[in-house]
Specification:
By secondary structure, this protein is an alpha/beta fold. The chain is built from 12 helices and 13 strands. The protein binds pyridoxal-5'-phosphate. Pyridoxal-5'-phosphate binds next to helix 3.
Length: 378
């Protein structure tokens, strides 16, 4: 039985052609011409003046947070349920993540909880969009304006998504993308910071590259890192970007198909197809077990693997991370919906290269596994 991996990217466009161009011309480093072209085209798709390509989405968040001047003791509000990249970008600088619980329906942060978390130390809100539906952008922007806070938009999972007709990646002071292979656009590893602010953009370019001083090379006044992005990555990115609309349409069709095939199963919370502000783009196809199912996501992952089907559990909450407990952060804090999603959520194969036959096998596997857990033949 062929094992169906949880993700396989689609690299059937101009990727090979552009990569060969890099090799034929010898341009493989971050100095190559595709990097600027990719920065320009990617930032233009989200109506931003500047794009700064970096080595991955985590680096993009680190650069963005540092560029905003966030440091020691500053507080940044973010979801409790997210990838650790969000929190690490903040704690690395000695700043403090302040967490909010999730909305159990959209899996994004419950923006109604943000206001009571704002203190005199709050500097920014990290607006993270998860799994295919944007978080409530308007509410976050309104709060940021009222309390004079910066907004960092983590659009890592949102290539091609819009909120009330405007592109994700265009909101707040600065936005970030990832191009990891399970995102709608991939460069293998890669990320980008986008902004309209000229000074912020310049600051990001400096932070991306070891904080070389402008006037004299090899003289440094500050610490940063080498987060450069190569011409090889940009070659793949350009080819991927040419197919963005097609990829988004394909993901939407896949999401709808899974929902049609799974919606009659009692005990599963499936992704919401549309909200008033957006249609789901299904970064991955997530499923949350309802409380009538006596199993957690790890158990389901194991049972699916026995059927030859790859899956992944959802993110683990920030306040439950061993590293942060050791640092004495988030003591006695609890976020019940975030904790529920982390224990009961998982996603099934949903990469762009997935075939209809594979999806049908996944559906059969999910029905069998959930049936075995509920004692019903599905
Ligand atoms: C993937 C992802 C990241 C991190 O991107 P990497 O390229 O893997 O470092 C950050 N935030 C979110 C929401 C993501 O999904």
């Amino acid at each position: 039985m062929e094992f169906i991996p949880v993700n396989e990217p689609l690299l059937k466009g101009n990727e090979k052609k552009y990569l060969c161009e890099c090799i034929d011309t010898g341009w493989i480093s971050s100095e190559g011409p595709f990097v600027k072209e990719f920065e320009q085209k990617m930032s233009a798709t989200v109506h931003r003046n500047h794009g700064i390509a970096v080595s991955n989405g985590t680096a993009a968040l680190e650069v963005a947070v540092q560029a905003l001047g966030i440091g020691e003791g500053d507080e940044v509000i973010m979801p409790a349920f997210t990838i650790i990249s969000c929190a690490m970008a903040v704690t690395k600088l000695g700043a403090v993540p302040v967490l909010v619980d999730s909305d159990i329906h959209t899996w994004n942060m419950n923006v109604d909880e943000i206001e009571r978390k704002i203190t005199s130390k709050t500097k920014a809100i990290m607006l993270v969009h998860l799994y295919g539906l944007p978080a409530a952008v308007d509410k976050v922007l309104e709060l940021a304006e009222r309390y004079d806070l910066k907004v960092i938009e983590d659009a890592a999972e949102m290539h091609g998504q819009t909120y009330n007709g405007k592109p994700c990646g265009s909101f707040g002071d600065i936005s970030t993308f990832s191009f990891y292979p399970n995102k709608h656009i991939t460069t293998g590893e890669g990320g980008m910071v986008v902004t309209n602010d000229d000074e912020l953009a310049e600051r990001c370019r400096v932070l991306r590259n070891l904080c070389f001083r402008k006037d004299v090379r090899y003289i440094h006044d500050e610490i940063s890192d080498n987060y450069r992005f190569t011409n090889l990555q940009a070659a793949v990115g350009l080819a991927q970007l040419e197919r963005l609309d097609e990829f988004v349409a394909r993901k939407r069709a896949m999401g709808k198909y899974y929902t049609e095939q799974l919606k009659d199963i009692d005990g599963l919370i499936l992704p919401i197809e549309k909200m008033s502000y957006s249609d789901n783009i299904y970064w991955v196809y997530g499923i949350v077990l309802k409380s009538n199912i006596q199993a957690d996501n790890k158990k389901v992952q194991k049972l699916l693997a026995e059927e030859g089907i790859g899956s992944r559990t959802f993110f683990w909450c920030m306040h439950e991370q061993p590293v942060y407990k050791k640092m004495g952060l988030f003591r006695d804090e609890s976020y019940p919906y975030a904790e529920y999603l982390a224990r009961k959520g998982f996603y099934i194969p949903s990469g762009l290269a997935l075939t209809r036959e594979q999806m049908d096998r996944v559906v059969t596997g999910v029905r069998k596994v959930i049936g075995s857990l509920t004692g019903k033949a599905l």
